[in-house]
Structure to design on (273 residues):
């Protein structure tokens, strides 16, 4: 472990990973409870088009992707109001549009830039100093936002109509929340990869829901599981030269399966006794 910390890129990757492992479950728990799991996939498709646009325009892909993702997030929220009875359509529309734009932009390149694969599947060597500072700055914004809006988001997750009747500005908070989701996805793509970001937002929460007995414990366990997945994933991907995103998500899957297996064993023992 001390050996890999001698390298600056590994220091940046681990620091960025720790921040990402805080953000993803914090946002993911509200996504799961609000049955919006697909929003991560939709915005990741848009993020891909942002990355390709950044590469084509020779502008920081992180900045361009942030603009694309936030715009798409606002579009999802706008469409959700137009299709109130079919809210999932909004996510599907943006997902389709995002992928279509990405495919067209990729076709404009002479060949797929190798950097694109790092964004797709995660690459710990691609985290630059300026990226780390942006991840740190926006990560603090996301965490403070969730902390300040924790009670409102909690209330809205279970009954949005009742929250509105109670005086909570649900429309404004919904808009701000999807922006936070877009920011989290953009910041995570360097470590986890665009195609796997939503998995890190969902899997730790899914595992914690199996054993936690309160909303607070779900939040804490989700963060713990995410931290284990990211830190182990980065270390393993370094030593075995694997894609960091796939390694991180695979560890998350193993954690989920382990939790399910242990819970099943405990339930069987209770029945026998």
């Amino acid at each position: 472990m001390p050996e890999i910390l001698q390298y600056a890129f590994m220091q940046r990757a681990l620091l960025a990973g720790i921040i990402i492992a805080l953000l993803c479950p914090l946002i993911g728990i509200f996504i799961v409870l609000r049955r919006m799991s697909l929003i991560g996939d939709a915005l990741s498709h848009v993020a891909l088009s942002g990355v390709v646009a950044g590469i084509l325009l020779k502008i920081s892909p992180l900045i361009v992707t942030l603009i694309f993702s936030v715009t798409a997030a606002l579009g999802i929220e706008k469409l959700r109001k137009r299709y109130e009875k079919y809210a999932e359509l909004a996510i599907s529309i943006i997902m389709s549009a995002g992928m279509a734009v990405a495919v067209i932009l990729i076709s404009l390149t002479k060949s797929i830039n190798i950097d694109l694969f790092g964004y797709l599947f995660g690459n710990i060597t691609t985290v630059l100093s300026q990226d780390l500072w942006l991840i740190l700055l926006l990560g603090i914004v996301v965490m403070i936002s969730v902390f300040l809006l924790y009670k409102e988001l909690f209330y809205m997750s279970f009954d949005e109509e009742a929250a509105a009747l109670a005086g909570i500005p649900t429309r404004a908070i919904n808009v701000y929340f999807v922006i936070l989701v877009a920011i989290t996805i953009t910041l995570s793509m360097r470590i986890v990869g665009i195609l796997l970001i939503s998995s890190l937002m969902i899997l730790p929460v899914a595992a914690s829901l199996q054993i936690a007995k309160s909303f607070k414990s779900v939040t804490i366990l989700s963060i713990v599981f995410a931290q284990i997945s990211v830190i182990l994933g980065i270390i393993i991907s370094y030593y075995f030269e694997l894609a960091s995103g796939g390694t991180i998500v695979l560890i998350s899957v193993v954690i989920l399966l382990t939790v399910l297996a242990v819970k099943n064993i405990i339930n069987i023992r209770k029945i026998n006794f």
About this structure: The longest helix spans residues 244-272. The chain has twelve helices and no strands.
